[in-house]
Amino acid sequence: MKFSFSDYQTEGFFDEMFDAHGGTRMGYEVFKERVEQLTKEEFVRRHQAAERALMAMGITFNVYSENEGTERIMPIDIIPRIVESDEWDRTEKGLIQRITALNMFLDDIYHDQKILRDGIIPRELIESSKNFLKPCIGLNPPKGIWIHITGTDLIKGDDGRFMVLEDNLRCPSGVSYMLENRELLKQTFPEVIAKTRVRSISDYPTRLLQMLQFITDRPDPTVCVLTPGIYNSAYFEHSYLAQQMGVELVDARDLVVQDGYVKMRTTKGFQVVDVIYRRIDDVFMDPRTFNPHSLIGIPGIFEVFKKGRVALANAPGSGVADDKVIYAYVPRIIKYYLGEDPIIPNVQTYICGEEDDCKYVLENIEKLVVKEANEAGGYGMLIGPKSTKEEQSMFKQRIKDNPRNYIAQPTISLSRVPCLIDDKAEGRHVDLRPYILYGNGVQVIPGGLTRVALRRGSLVVNSSQGGGSKDTWVLY
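The structure corresponding to this sequence follows.
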């Protein structure tokens, strides 16, 4: 029996492959035609082969809260998410605009603080953010760039247009899954990729290395990737990117501050390191400057960075722009620094630290998604329509106790893309994390990691919460 999308249900959500009348949207025609030439058995076999390849390549992530074991493969769905050229070009411009403004914002709040003096953002919001790091005041990162690698999470609602859900400016993860998903889809549907004219993403490691080399003035710089260690949830990615760039993967045991420089232990003795792509959160990076209890940092590295003797990507202090309360002000930040309206809008956001917004949230919590300001990975979150009265009551009390720490947003009916469930196509909700590099200009990688909520009806796409991923095809 041939595989078919004829029984696929759009069920009132915006579906990215089919319109409300069942017609195939532009960009998906070639893929649909090719897949429906396959039998169900052959399509399922291709899916199983992709899963086996993931396991063989060791593409895993760690889940700390599970009792049955910590290491899992990231589930992949082999039906791609396809983005048309015009839509992507607009999205790319919007991301460049956003990253440019956020970089200007970071430089301002650690220097002149004009945006605070002009009353665009309340001063107490910045000063109460746990990611606003006072040791970074007056800091001048190389080339004036604070955020070298960004993963900005996008969603689509009922109108099918992208909105920004949140910014990830410290240690955004997932790019290795983006790259490996593409390699798997090249093997799974080689003829479709060739015929559909999909933009390449395979040069990401090269672009990443070029950006890292750009942020130092040293000739032939030594670059390394700094990992917290093998128990970190993204350790596979750290080792993968180091291997793809041809640089050393190091942890705290491999680096030392000596004679005013950061040096790496090698079999030939100590070697000066010029650029560090750090995958360690700011406060754990240097126990002398930040958290004195950190066992995964390098004592003294921050002082070396301040003196311009090592470049760090991303710059310490950039996490203040990850704060979900600061996120609510990004449209104002763009307008303030660039004099432009945002090309990609934010999701409507209620700031619990503002009295009227807080009152609305407490009275309507069952309709809203409530988020802690500095949590990630789907944690510290209440999805109102899916929650119990007990959970709602608990979150109401948390908000009353610490309103600064919470925002709320309407429950968005995330767009859906078909997924292979057993042997048929069913719609599942998705988001998109494009990756942006800021070195000699801002570059947006054409695609990104599409994360998919594989549990029926779920809106939570995080891998640690039962999500998987798809390859994202951006067309020429």
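The radius of gyration is 23 Å.
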